[in-house]
Design brief:
single chain; about 200 residues; alpha+beta; Immunoglobulin-like; 2 domains; eight-stranded antiparallel β-sheet; 4 helices; disordered N terminus
């Protein structure tokens, strides 16, 4: 009887290990979510808020619906308390512009500031909100790499030859709650010779 139980236990353990191995292997080299490549992203709407600072201009548009974030990241970022804002920087002529000191700040109608998040912290919020706790580390790295491709590059100067630069800036809602129809959003841009304000909605 004991021998039979030991055999049954070994058989169950072997089945569990085999199943786990298949799941682990299947997740290797894949991503947690299927992220749409930035190159496939449509242009900003023509009526997007714009501010002209002479040498460069800024345009921006927040992703305010579940459908928009699902289409890009196969995940509901608003549920995670995240508001992605698409930003476009246009070089209007002249010397290259150093963007290293540029910072974005977001306030709502109540004057409450939203926190700017790095891609790494934004991903942590997404996984927590979706209850994803067990995953292959390689899958997370791949997901982070694909989302990071959307991050607005502020490290390298913007030259006239580049003309335009696109990217997303992630903001966290004041109480870390799900984003639901925020009103009076204003994005302030500083770190340049003159500050700029964009009224997003």
């Amino acid at each position: 009887m004991k021998a039979h139980l030991r055999y049954s236990y070994r058989l169950t353990a072997a089945k569990y290990f085999f199943t786990a191995s298949i799941l682990f292997t299947a997740s290797c080299g894949t991503t947690l979510y299927r992220v749409k490549p930035p190159a496939a992203l449509a242009s900003l709407p023509a009526n997007s808020p714009t501010v002209n600072l002479g040498t460069i201009s800024f345009r921006a548009a927040p992703l305010l619906t579940d459908e928009e974030t699902q289409e890009l990241f196969e995940s509901n970022l608003l549920l995670a308390g995240l508001l992605p804002v698409r930003v476009e920087i246009v070089h209007n002529g002249g010397d290259a512009v150093d963007l290293k000191k540029v910072r974005f700040h977001l306030h709502d109608a109540a004057g409450t500031q939203w926190q700017t998040l790095s891609v790494k912290k934004a991903i942590a919020r997404i996984l927590k909100a979706n209850g994803v706790f067990a995953y292959n580390p390689n899958s997370r790295k791949q997901f982070e790499k694909e989302v990071r491709a959307y991050e607005l590059d502020l490290k390298s100067p913007l030259a006239q030859s580049e003309r335009r630069r696109h990217g997303i800036v992630f903001f966290l809602s004041p109480k870390k709650e799900a984003v639901a129809s925020p009103h009076g959003l204003k994005m302030t841009i500083d770190g340049l010779p003159q500050p700029a304000v964009l009224e997003l909605n």
